[in-house]
Design a protein that fits this description.
By secondary structure, this protein is mostly helical. It contains eleven helices and no strands. Helices cover 77% and strands 0% of the residues. Helix 3 packs parallel to helix 7, helix 4 packs across helix 8 and helix 9 runs antiparallel to helix 10.
Length: 291
């Protein structure tokens, strides 16, 4: 019971801290911190607490290749959303006559709208994760595969448009406390479920499952309910760029856990991921004026 409480508190506190910092520092930092390896860090840490550091290291070797499942989850969610948007397009893009007043864009989204994309994305993640768990994983090969997968995903999503969120005072999901509590609750439940399942799984299966985007997936649901499909597609479009921090974190887990132990190793791995995010943000800001 104490360990379960620790998981919930750790996930809640970390997520609230990241969201608060991002909100205070502005949109640039929000984008940077979106790639922070919250889920995998907490999951691998509690693997180590419950089943030993060696189990966590073995699992991390498979988490790296399991990140391909995260990309498939995000893209699957986006593909379903785009298909539903295209099917409804004729109904919402009728030409306006001079007598018809132009109505403001409707932001509110029905509660069932994320259901089909979420189920499709979850199924895609689990299917690919189960296949990847059966494969041998070598850090160098896994790194090459996930880097290529990130690059291909980035290229494939480039044509998706960028949409800015619009406020809707009547949308309860846009209230910061509601959105944050829901997101943190879903993330905590995910951590509890994944770490519980790990007791019956091999390190390979537990490792690929640890790649599940504990923070990002609830964020997609909340954004969908808060701002609608276009904003969700924008978030998915930029997700591959932030996934590099997860790659850096997972690569750092093995050496740091072996050299410094579970607690210090987790802190050092998080610092490596943060260093990557800061470097990536600085590179993107430097590149922006020339693009």
């Amino acid at each position: 019971m104490e360990l379960m409480f620790a998981k919930i508190v750790t996930t809640f506190a970390t997520l609230v801290m990241l969201v608060t910092v991002a909100r205070r520092l502005g949109s640039d930092w929000a984008g940077v911190l979106a790639g922070f390896p919250l889920g995998s860090a907490i999951t691998l840490y509690f693997y180590g607490v419950e089943q030993g550091t060696e189990f966590a290291i073995d699992a991390a070797n498979h988490t790296l290749i399991g990140l391909c499942s995260c990309l498939l989850l995000a893209i699957s969610y986006g593909v379903v959303v785009r298909r539903r948007m295209s099917n409804s397009q004729p109904l919402i893009s009728q030409p306006l006559t001079s007598q018809q007043p132009r109505k403001p864009q409707q932001v509110s989204t029905p509660l069932q709208a994320p259901l089909l994309p979420a189920l499709t994305a979850m199924l895609a993640f689990l299917l690919l994760a189960s296949l990847l768990a059966a494969l041998p994983s070598h850090p160098v090969i896994a790194t090459g595969i996930i880097v290529v997968a990130i690059w291909l995903s980035h290229r494939a999503l480039q044509h998706w448009p960028d949409t800015q969120p619009q406020d809707d005072p009547d949308n309860v999901w846009q209230r910061p406390k509601v959105a944050l509590f829901t997101r943190a609750s879903l993330a905590s439940l995910s951590v509890l479920l994944i770490t519980a399942l790990a007791h019956w799984l091999s390190p390979a299966a537990a490792g690929t499952l640890a790649a599940f985007p504990v923070s990002f997936f609830p964020t997609l649901l909340i954004l969908h309910l808060s701002y609608g499909a276009p904003v969700v597609l924008t978030t998915i479009k930029h997700y591959p760029s932030g996934l590099g921090a997860m790659v850096v974190y997972v690569l750092a887990v093995g050496p740091t856990y072996q050299a410094f132990g579970l607690h210090v190793g987790t802190a050092l791995s998080l610092l490596c991921a943060l260093a990557y995010l800061l470097s990536f943000a600085a590179w993107r800001r430097r590149k922006a004026p020339n693009s």
